[in-house]
Amino acid sequence: MKDGLLWAPDKERQTHTLLAAFIRAVNQTHDTQLSGYDDLYAWSVRQSGDFWQQLWQFSGVIGDPGERVCDIDPEHPNRDSHWFPTARLNYAENLLKHAEQYADQPAMIFSGEHEVARTLTWRELVDQVAAIRHYLYMQGVQPGDVVAGYLPNLPETVIAMLATAALGAIWTSTSPDFGVDSVLDRFGQTEPKVLFTTDHYHYNGKTYDCLNKAQQVVGNVPAIERLVVIPFDGERPSLPAGVDNWQDLLVKDVPPLRFTRVAFNAPLFVLYSSGTTGKPKCIIHSVGGILLNHLKEHQLHSDVRPGDRFFYFTTCGWMMWNWQVSALASGATLVLYDGSPFYPDAGVLWRLAERHRLTLFGTAAKYLEALEKQGVAPKDDYSLTSLRVLCSTGSVLAPEQFDYVYQKIKSDLQLSSIAGGTDICGCFVLGSPLSPVYRGESQKRSLALDVQVFNAQGQAVEEQKGELVCCNSFPNQPVGFWHDTDGSRYHNAYWNKIDDIWFHGDYVRLTAQGGMVFYGRSDAVLNPGGVRIGTAEIYRHVNQLSEIIDSVVIGQQWLNDIRVVLFVKLAAGVTLDEPIKQAIKKTIRTQCTPRHVPAVIAEVSDIPRTKSGKLAELAVRDVVHGQDVAQLSALDNPASLDQYRQRPELAE
To answer: Which Pfam families match (predicted)?
Structure first.
């Protein structure tokens, strides 16, 4: 379409969005005349206190908002200000506030690789949360204690989290594909009092034991007092003495569900960085910050309403699990899936979308690329009439995948390429149901976040590549890092480049439409001859070639400069001969610039990625330069790094 325009909502659709209703509420309350997203964004940054207060009222947050919206720190207003300093609320209470109204309707629907659905009503959800809350209370769990999940993406995982939050305690989780060392790197720092796990889980048609690994974790974390096992398939497992069976905890005679209201900035979640450069950072997120931000991102940016069917393909080791669970606060039904997205075939998630009438489908960019490579066209085989929003995150969504979504999935769809991270448990850029979608661009900057692009001189620029920064305070900034008593690790992670400015580490460009184009992580930017090149610019074109399954590119120190080195995983039956190399170079030279063309192209059988599917570019760079990788356990496939060591072609 003209100027890269791929989709725009019609007037009727715009009028009935929650975002349009919010604009009307702002205009009425504050005597403004805002019209459209850009007006609202400018106002929300200029009057961020009014925005967050309005959002509290608009979304019906349960709790006492307190007397003040924000205590502004005079020395560091962006880093150290405190939102809703006297507010009291409970996260679980807000996620379950629709339970009475929708008692017999589905709150959660679960399906795995067997594709047999299991449904839990809102009434059943409340009853089970009450039972698990009572169990935790009887174990002495109090506000400030940590409860952990070493679990698949099950309804019981959500229930355990809600029971923890109902007590005002802190939830932390990781997925069962993490090895024992990886779990100890995380839970060994946060020291949970109770650990929930499962007996086994399924992936790609195989069954994997989890109980043995969980017992090893318990044996190495003295703080863990109780281990609870959730049967994955519902069959009662044989458990060692001293281990509790989830099914035994779901007793009927428990007190009604009660909620302990805590301070707005009290800890709710501990999330973990990938840990590829050292022990994972334990990032503490607040009760109120998470709730308000997710209400904003769901209701205003994604138009999530009561009765919607909300799905995100994720594990419990990724922040998107926490993000999806919060959709209960908007009255949506969670549709959960655990297993491979390609087992028994590439249609498994689209059958899920059709059967359960998904309204929001969330996934990773790499999944969409893989579907395109396999020639999968969901629109031809499945009815997706209910689907309104498709979210993609985890890595850069290439322009060609934008085309794929509209050509092969659905033409009338809000495609939201969202980006943020574990650091804020949310997004700096995401969608807008009032705004067009342009090819290759994230739609808009997040409401009330003063997101800018800074050049090397620390100046805000548009239509130029630079660093993504945030120039104001917002409620979902981390409370801090676990055991970071003087705050130095937190400061060094985000705030040490320009005083009081959050540097996020993404290399981006702000477009004329107010959208954002991503070029990769700024710490992985290539710099041959002093020219900065985003790695995503190369992946976009190389990964489109039919001969290439996947790739990773790094900058190698060479003769007092940096040269570009590209590693490729080839399709079956393809050999990296000279014609293939020349085809790759020609594609990059034509589609990018001569500066982008790799000096060396080498074949590998596997591309290293983190547990959440992100490319481990820095790990590859370290190995190529003969340096140790700090945390191999952070990688999903650490053995793959062996083939990057001492490559003869990299010594020439």
So the answer is: ACAS_N, AMP-binding
Instruction: Single out the residue of 322, 317, 342 nearest to residue 633, CA to CA.
Output: 317
Question: What does the pLDDT read at residue 561?
Answer: 83
Neighbours of 565 (CB within 10 A): 24
Radius of gyration of the chain (CA): 24
- Nearest CA-CA partner of 9 in 414, 364, 391: 414
CA distance 337 to 324: 12
* pLDDT tens for each residue of 325-336: 999 999 999 999
Average pLDDT of the chain to the nearest whole number: 94
Sheet holding 243-245, edge to edge: 243-245, 226-230, 194-198, 146-150, 170-174, 267-272, 282-286, 480-481
Question: Sign of dihedral through CA atoms 596, 600, 606, 610?
Answer: negative
Helix 37-46 and helix 18-30, axial crossing angle in degrees, nearest 10: 50
φ and ψ of 62, to 5 deg: -90, 125
Q: Among 370, 352, 369, which Cα is nearest to 361's?
A: 352
Tens of pLDDT, residue by residue over 449-492, are 999 999 989 999 999 999 999 999 999 999 999 999 999 999 99
Q: What is the pLDDT of residues 480-538, one digit of tens each?
A: 999 999 999 999 999 999 999 999 999 999 999 999 999 988 888 888 877 778 888 89
- The β-bridge relationship of strands 333-338 and 106-112 is parallel
Which token pair is 111? 């399906």
